[in-house]
TrEMBL record:
Biased composition (Basic and acidic residues): 769-780
Compartments where found: Cell projection, Cilium, Flagellum; Cytoplasm, Cytoskeleton, Cilium basal body; Cytoplasm, Cytoskeleton, Microtubule organizing center, Centrosome, Centriole
Compositionally skewed regions (Acidic residues) per UniProt: 781-796
Source organism of this protein record: Canis lupus familiaris
Gene Ontology CC: centriole; centrosome; ciliary basal body; ciliary tip; cytosol; intraciliary transport particle B; motile cilium
Protein role: Positively regulates primary cilium biogenesis. Also involved in autophagy since it is required for trafficking of ATG16L and the expansion of the autophagic compartment.
Quaternary structure note: Component of the IFT complex B, at least composed of IFT20, IFT22, IFT25, IFT27, IFT46, IFT52, TRAF3IP1/IFT54, IFT57, IFT74, IFT80, IFT81, and IFT88. Interacts with IFT20, IFT22, IFT25, IFT27, IFT52, TRAF3IP1, IFT74, IFT80 and IFT81. Interacts with IFT172. Interacts with IFT57. Interacts with IFT46. Interacts with IFT70B. Interacts with C2CD3. Interacts with ENTR1 (via N-terminus). Interacts with LRRC56. Interacts with DZIP1. Interacts with CCDC38. Interacts with CCDC146. Interacts with CFAP53.
GO biological process terms held by the UniProt record: cell projection organization; regulation of cilium assembly
Protein name, per record: Intraflagellar transport protein 88 homolog
UniProt KW Mitochondrion keyword: no
Gene: IFT88
Amino acid sequence: MMQNVHLAPETDEDDLYSGYNDYNPTYDTEELENDTAFQQAVRTSHGRRPPITAKIPSTAVTRPVATGYGSKTSLASSMGRPMTGAIQDGVTRPMTAVRAAGFTKAALRGSAFDPLGQSRGPAPPLEAKNEDSPEEKIRQLEKKVNELVEESCIANSCGDLKLALEKAKDAGRKERILVRQREQVTTPENINLDLTYSVLLNLASQYSANEMYAEALTTFQVIVKNKMFSNAGRLKVNMGNIYLKQRNYSKAIKFYRMALDQIPSVHKEMRIKIMQNIGVTFIKTGQYSDAINSFEHIMSMAPNLKAGFNLILSYFAVGDRDKMKKAFQKLIAVPLEIDEDDKYISPSDDPHTNLVIEAIKNDRLRQMERERCVEVVKASQYVELANDLEINKAITYLRQKDFNQAVETLKMFEKKDSRVKSAAATNLSFLYYLENEFAQASSYADLAVNSDRYNPSALTNKGNTVFANGDYEKAAEFYKEALRNDSSCTEALYNIGLTYKRLNRLDEALDCFLKLHTILRNSAQVLYQIANVYELMEDPHQAIEWLMQLISVVPTDSRALSKLGELYDSEGDKSQAFQYYYESYRYFPSNIEVIEWLGAYYIDTQFCEKAIQYFERASLIQPTQVKWQLMVASCFRRSGNYQKALDTYKDIHRKFPENVECLRFLVRLCTDIGLKEVQEYATKLKRLEKMKEIREQRIKSGRDGSGGPRSRREGSASSDSGQNCSASSKGERLSAKLRALPGTNEPYESSSNKEIDASYVDPLGPQIERPKTAAKKRIDEDDFADEELGDDLLPE
């Protein structure tokens, strides 16, 4: 090949036209006859090519070139590529393929179109995992090590330090086995360093938690000295903590500083914590000047309460009073990140925390803070805000349930401006009303009204005190005046509706509650009052309709559901009554009236067995009432279980030996069954009946000897009471099944346990006077209109 390569002469190196007349000898067809390799290729099979057809395309066939001898032969490429079949350096070049790559039409001839290869059938099944392979064993062992580390951490968090240490040791042993197996199977570079790091760190931490400090330090040293672990130097902080616990302060400071050098400056918070540890260690060693340097640096970079407090102590130790004052100023400038109102409210039930808060709640610093705050406000241009601060202080006392302090604070306003006095007196009236001290409540309500006659909340409170004294007409006048001053006072509108109900002016009461319903669409109290008024107007269908709206607002209210059951029962719809009584029982299974109705329902429907569970629950609620246990025994007797009934009656007799009805049933059952005990029970029954007759005769003789006029008066009184009972029989019939439902004509008392239900949310409940926080030049009535006391009268 080199004989065909012509190099340009050195003399013509700068000649731009050198090689212009040169030509490639490969294209010299005249010399082909003398070309030995070419002639051999022509004579042997290496030079033969299959004929070119149109059906089989060829990509490797070269175009034949006519030679001077009249034959067509293939030539080598112009780049010097040897021809197919040519012999070069004694080696014959093999022939190249003449068939195109890929598929051909001949290959597809006679086959169906199947681009997705579905005709080949399903894929072969996956190769089964070989659990005995070394890789799989290593994987399972690594999983086990991770599980042990997690279990160790969980045990530590639960306080079981011994178990945590055992799990950590087990994880360390298995991790060493894992490393040896990996070294046998793979190269050392494939060892899981993260797993090794976590195992060692957990083991060192568990040693430290169990106060095995020597072992913990040894394990930490293994981690720190291993250069393959990145960021392991920061663990020297842990080592410093251990030395600090061992009171080896010099080594603790040494390791803290080593850790500080290895932590980059971007981790500002961690560096501050380490410096704080260094400062505390210096204090323990008595090196206060070094501690001051550490804490001063912290207060200049990221001030916090602990560092500021320690800095003050350090200045105190060296006797530098001036710097103590400056440090204290820096300390109080640190934000607490706690709401001012919640600063002295305990966040938990921890006794120690409560004692600390109680100690600092009214200490000299707190008193000075409060006085300085009020003085600063009074000396400023916002003098009016000082009164707001005092009222806000009273509200804070209320939030802390310190009612005495709240009352004392509000009483300070009795000699203030009239409008501020009205606001404070309104709140005082509210507090005394809640404590059922109606005389004091009325006195402060008068003071609030006299100070500001146009204060609707003061007028509402005054109406409440008058209502509590039974003067309903006068209470209605106060409520009307409150509505004239503020037509949006919903408390006054609600209370005047209750007043009209008490006066039996049901149409006017209904108008008030319907008007209130347009304002408070989803108020449970308003919906209940409308339903109750319709019930009093003897319109049960409307009452049911409004009660249905009520349970759509409070679907789990047991008493509203039982009231619906009562109304359906009065209408004769037992199935609907049972549905609502059962729902009421499901939400509140301790209502005796509901339990009694359900038990009676099952007895009427001949399902005495199901009634037993209700009467048994009633006997648990009222264990001293013998009738529930008698009903249980009666259900057993009606269902044919006479032996169980007999045992129940005997148990009742042991608890209530003077119950005549129980003895009568015992005598009857023993007679029917044929027991010998019948004579004993019969004797007891006769003795009790005789004692009862003697007692009745004594009572009768006592009445006869007491004199005629008195007896006539008693008879008259009894007849009057009988008439009253007959007159009120309809009302008793309406409430016979649910006496626990709130009365509809009594004023609301916060101390009473007769509420509609715990699920009710009182939208009209008593409000507390709250001052506005915005600065104003004066306090007008709008500042307190929607936040004052509006002690609405709700059903008992």
